[in-house]
Amino acid sequence: MVVYAGQGDARRSMSLLWRSAAPREAGGTAGPGPRPGLTVDAIVTAAIAVADEDGMAALSMRAVGERLGRTAMALYTYVPGKSELLDLMYDAVHAELPAGRTGSGDWRTDLTDWARDTLAFYLRHPWVLQVSQARPVLGPHEYAGLDALVRLLYGTGLDAGVLRRLVGTLFHFVRGAAQTVADAREAASATGRADEEWWYARSGALMELVPDFADRYPELNRMERESARERESARPEPAGDDAVPYPEREARETFDAGLDVLLDGVEAAVQRCGRGAGRANPP
Questions:
Q1: Which of 192, 201, 272, 278 lies 20 to 30 Å (CA to CA) from residue 140?
Q2: Structure confidence at residue 31 as a pLDDT band (50, 70, 90)
Q3: Residue 80 to residues 13, 49, 86, 187: CA-CA distances in angstroms?
Q4: pLDDT score, position 110
Q5: Are the CB atoms for 149 and 170 separated by under 8 Å?
């Protein structure tokens, strides 16, 4: 399920995102009456809770209203519709990403920390992964997160044109890894079959139906055989890893390995440019 941001009225959405709307729309009370008025922030917080707990499919003005003890119609005074609400939700959760990063002076450590923080952010709010990056929300928190990443990337000393492409590369990498972990977490409940049961049935059938599998795919078989030996000779996994299901653990290990290779590439680019020292802050 892919959702596109920015489907509501452009002016009203942007006014709400940047809080430049009239006081009533931007978060004031609904006027005199026996019950306290709602606010845009309260509605957005409730909507995020619905999406975090039950997923994007459960998000509706009615569901948010019920969480607040109001009717869906009561929400329209503050938020024009679900499309505008989605924009507000998306931008609001991005406030969780560190926006004030100045960098430690070691760009590789800084980018590693950024990638892990961002992965954790997506896994706290997996519905965010369903919002396409093709059309950004253009909200203040989204921009603040981008600004923080660019500040860290300037520490490499690379030219602005390269950094601009690196921003997209890093986000694609982290979002892709987060999607894999999120899918692994959801698979059992969505399909009604535990991972162990699924793999046992499928791998058993594969070996029975394709007995020459290793001969058909020799390099794949070689890689699996050699990596298994490497794992056996490596140090024991830290205590607590047993609590993490295998598919998620595999996805996280892939993330760590891929991030190292990606940053190796950045380091090689820095060395080609003769700027190994980098800059802590943009000019």
A1: 278
A2: very low
A3: 8, 19, 11, 35
A4: 94
A5: yes
